[in-house]
Amino acid sequence: MERGGVEVLDVPAFQLHENECVSLIGPNGSGKSTLLLSMMGLLEPTAGQVLFRGEATASARAAIACRRKLAMVLQEPLLFDATVYENVASGLKIRGLDGAETRRRVLAYLERFRLTEMAQRSARKQLPKEKARPKRSRR
Q: Is 88 in contact with 102 (CB distance < 8 Å)?
């Protein structure tokens, strides 16, 4: 993987099997985020290929299909300029759930993460400690 003409990541091979958990650890700038972004199809590899369940993710259609089955939680919360409810619902809508099922799940997640009372508040205007809560619910 290259960024700005500089090689930033060289992974000859990596396999992650279904139901397997892996932790990526390393110092700042070691390529952890670059690897994850390339696995999600958000960065195009400069060489080689990314496979998801045995299928190449090089086409836009394949990358989107792959992304709909994965989630990436970043260190800093990325919230839409919308309510807490709408932020939690966003991932479900992208995955094509119908309105009734989206509402059912969003309400369950809001309750689970004790966000029910904040559902109609702006997600961006939460206290700093609260900002990560809608993101954790967005699965």
A: no
